[in-house]
Amino acid sequence: MKKIEIFDPAMCCPTGLCGTNIDPELMRIAVVIETLKKQGIIVTRHNLRDEPQVYVNNKTVNEYLQKYGADALPITLVDGEVAISQTYPTTKQMSEWTGINLNFMPVK
């Protein structure tokens, strides 16, 4: 099983789903991750505001941020390698990486 880690930009809360103007993309990725967790898949998500040291300690993320800056966030690692940056993985990508059928969810 692939190890998936998402390194979010600094957000007000762990999922970014707070306040009155909720970003639909944050809602989608939160639902995808929750759905995968219910299937026993572990997707780790880090928030720069709450866990800055994790970004420093992860050599891959640290080097990527040194090279591309904070605009590279969010960064998704799959098995320790950068799979996608500057955007969240699509539902299709998450399905392919985990082997879990997410076709019932919005396609993006």
Automatic annotation (TrEMBL):
Gene3D superfamilies in the record: Glutaredoxin (3.40.30.10)
UniProt GO BP: negative regulation of DNA-templated transcription; response to arsenic-containing substance
Annotated GO MF terms: DNA binding
UniProt-listed Pfam families: ArsD
Transmembrane segments: none
NCBIfam families, per database record: chaperon_ArsD (NF033727)
Annotated protein name in UniProt: Arsenical resistance operon trans-acting repressor ArsD
Organism (species): Bacteroides oleiciplenus YIT 12058
